[in-house]
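Re-run requested by the PI after the first attempt was lost when the workstation crashed. Everything re-entered from the original request form. Ligand of interest: nicotinamide-adenine-dinucleotide.
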Amino acid sequence: MSMNFSGQVALVTGAANGIGRATALAFAAEGLKVVVSDVDTAGGEGTVQLIRDTGGEACFIRCDVTRDAEVKALMEGTLAAYGRLDYAFNNAGIEIEKGKLAEGSEAEFDAIMGVNVKGVWLCMKHQIPLMLAQGGGAIVNTASVAGLGAAPKMSIYAASKHAVIGLTKSAAVEYAKKKLRVNAVCPAVIDTDMFRRAHEADPKKAEFAAAMHPVGRIGKVEEIAAAVLYLCNDAAGFTTGHALAVDGGATAI
Ligand SMILES: NC(=O)c1ccc[n+]([C@@H]2O[C@H](COP(=O)([O-])OP(=O)(O)OC[C@H]3O[C@@H](n4cnc5c(N)ncnc54)[C@H](O)[C@@H]3O)[C@@H](O)[C@H]2O)c1
């Protein structure tokens, strides 16, 4: 399948590490100019360097997705750098819970909802007018299999990812006639720092994580990047408002 993205511009949040970095690299490999964004400046600049090392074009714009003014400035910076925005991957997210629902704190709730829900909402709020003004575009938001069902000891995270799917579906329907598609990608356990932080203290948890996927392993960042590029591409032109599980069969059980 030819992706034919050349000359276009993609923005990736949470692009300093993990799934976001891999997706920024994948966009660049397809010839897109990439705006790499994150709160982690060193990691974000590292992603830009990796893209430039392979002959691609990218720039870093620091942005905390929980801050309206910073998200607005990110879109203005994207236009200043590359003149347009064709694709946005709203991927920045956190997971900090340590226990069951009744053990959670208000601070955890506000932090998780702030990045995972408000961040995605603010990004779409500022991206959609740009895309409408230029005649269309595509947005992919990072949800999770925790947005499709229960996630024990991650109840706030699960609520946040269900909310991402709600935002995605609503925006998709609102703008469906405007050549603007909005979808979500729902990874199961993927080999990133987020996964390693959660499991390094207990190797048994890593074994459990592999076993929960019928394919018998956790996922790779490149496997999520490939799904995001497909959802952005014209090949997915009839797909909007969809929450695509990329999960080694985990939600099929
Ligand atoms: N790794 C998994 O198993 C997994 C599974 C399902 C969904 N996800 C989701 O995938 C996305 C990426 O996760 P990852 O595994 O690559 O994690 P990661 O921790 O490697 O990357 C997340 C990135 O988001 C950035 N970030 C955090 N808060 C931010 C903020 N306020 N503003 C801007 N950037 C911010 C971090 O600096 C980091 O670079 C997240 O939304 C996560 O919830 C991950």
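Saved to the shared folder this time. DSSP finds eight helices and seven strands in the chain.
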